[in-house]
Amino acid sequence: MKFNKAYFLNDTFLGLATIYGLTIEDEIRFKDVNFREVLFHGAEMERMHFEHCTWNESKSEGRIIIIDETELTNNDDVKKIKEVEEIYRILKQKYKEMGNEGEASLFHISEKTMLTRRTHFKKKPFYWALLRLYKLSSGYGENLSRAFILLLMLLMAFIFGLWFAGLKGAANESVTFFQVALTTVEFLTFHSETHYGLKTANGLAGSIRVISTIFIYIQTLLFIFALRNRLRR
Length: 233
Description:
- The strands form 4 sheets. The chain has a 3-stranded parallel sheet with strand order 1-3-5. Strands 2-4 form a two-stranded parallel ribbon.
- It has 7 helices and 9 strands; from the N terminus they run E-E-E-E-E-E-E-H-H-H-H-H-E-H-E-H.
- The longest helix is centred in the last third of the chain and has 30 residues, at 203-232.
- It folds into 2 domains: 2-118, no CATH class; 144-232, Helix Hairpins (Orthogonal Bundle), CATH 1.10.287.
- It is elongated and about 85 Å long.
- Helix content is 52%, strand content 14%.
- It is an alpha/beta fold.
């Protein structure tokens, strides 16, 4: 089917449908169209524009799922998964161009989910782990509450790690939990000298300080990124 320019308004595709084979010379605009049962495989997505359309949303995953993804199986090769990933990327870009950052973020999560799915541990172990940590730590930069909760958890783990590993004062006196907590904050803000003059008591405490500082700063950046994305919606 060939279109020079077309406009679909308040339409619903009955049953499973596909828009594969549409030849578009100019553009096609969809407004208030239901795409819950539509396959996009092979379609000329670049010349399509979407506005206030209806999609399948997964509340548990916090993202949009198109039919092309649901038809994937565990035996599908990387190429098929990458095709679905590319559909999500184009849809994300289309919604960004309209200024609809809310739905663009849902397509972004779906795009990254496909990227994570096609990344194999044996071929790219570091990238495989990085993508899963990115999802766990901030929902691919889109889950503000998850990023904040994990940041607090890392901070508390740092405090308790130093509390059990050991900090010491100038006269080797015992320290309180409040002193450890304040010293932890001072460590994170790179104070050359702490208020209570506490220092790490051993190599274990020193290692906890270095490792925790790195992870907390990374998680802080992810939290800021997620906050920026939330404010843009």
